[in-house]
Amino acid sequence: MISRYSCMKKSILILFIAICGFSSAQKEQDADTLIWNGRRYAMVVEPYVPSVLMVYYQCSGKTSPFTFWSSNNNRGHVATYEILNDALYLRNVEAKRYRTRLGNLWTESGIDTVVTPDFFEISSIDSSQAFSPDMVLTDWFSGCLKLKYLPTTKKELKQAETKGYRFLTLKNGRIVGNTFISDDDLKRFDAGIQGPEVPRDMLEQYRLYVAFFSRCAMDRERVAYNSHEGLFERKTNSLPLAMLPFGNDAQRYFDVMSDGKPTGAAPFGDWLIRNDSLFLSAVNAHLGSDIYSFSAQPLQLDKFIPPTQDSGIVRNAGVPLFAHWVSGDFVIHYGSWDTSSLGIPSYTVAKTQKIRFSNGVVTLSQFSPSSFDDDGGGASLSSFAPCKPTQVFSVDDKLLAEAVGNFKSPKKNPEYEGGKSTFRSWFLNHPLTDERAKDRLFRVHLAFMVNCNGEVGQWQVISKGKGELFEFANMVLELVKTMPQNWQPATDRKGNPVDCWQKMEFTVSNGVLTNGIYK
Fold first, then answer.
1. What is the pLDDT of residue 18?
2. Domain residue spans of the chain
3. Fewest beta carbons less than 10 Å away: which of 17, 141, 245, 328?
């Protein structure tokens, strides 16, 4: 079955909202409410800027019981917050439609009720900061809020705050910036009028914050897998996968990229799946003058390595990063690009592949004509995974280090059972069968990992040969993967088995693999 998948589908909705105006969008979606000093405020809904509660599910990795985005903006819930001692707390959630967990199934409850955060197991990152058992400190949220005062009496209608908006900047749920901006000042800002009466810094920061999330929704990341390219997405997540090293926390991304200030530029990665392992090969910052046009500039790849402790890893420029921080369910959409009569790019999907990663290694791969929700059979499994992806070792070899990075050396390298003589003898009886390899003499270098259990995976060719030589090297790789993988794991200085990169090399003469050695 061929389905129509628009890479720019969210931009169409944004364009519709822009045409209809902010007021109509508000009618379609009830805003979250904020209580502050006895006053009530509506949290203004900006297209594709995540709500405080949506950020919770993005950063925690938990499956949301709510529908945050839909064609009519009906998300099925409204949250109520309160500011106490300059900190933002979640008071309750009016759940008009949500899903409850029953075994491995999600079902629609159909209940319209007001519940406290613990009903949905929503909690603060630091539980010691809780103000009361009935409220939750939103210390997972760092970002900007735009508030509209909701007067309840005729006297309140005459107050100045009804004729403008209050802008807040929060860091870990606590207010670090608070500015009221009148409607007149907003008009001056939009018109480009300079003057001390217009708080430009706050408005520019807010506009960049909104632009960042809008750009996150405007494009998709690419991945190359088995010589095929497709669009790469994570299930139930609207942010680019390049945000994963930052825990999907926009503020952490801003901290690394622009000293804590929103950049307005969204990061989009180029990914590679090679030998059942996921690599990040490049990241570009996307900017644009409107929702259909983008300019991109490369970002420094090592900024997208998540912080780890005692990893001992030194990265080499230009070498793809093994994405050991990636786990969970993802999809690859294979298809082709097209442009509509209105000039809007779209993507026609012919096949969808469900991919599951555990610490950067493929553990499930399943094709589906359209749906990603089917967890049925037909899956192929890969049993290999590093035991501790952030504590990997490597044998001492310059060519290997150029390919995978510099790691600590183990006390004892991985060894083949029976030694190097047993290792070599197998290949004497298993030559290459391709006729083109005959009458040829060349060297092949391969990299692979032996985990702490003696399991082998993450194979790759690290030879420098190109063209036909690279093709021959991949023939050697496929042959090597069929041999009995009887490896003893490396050990550290305490004698504990560890994950370790290993290298093997061969001289191939007339199709026969000779002089096979490993480190």
1. 38
2. 31-214, 219-368, 393-518
3. 328
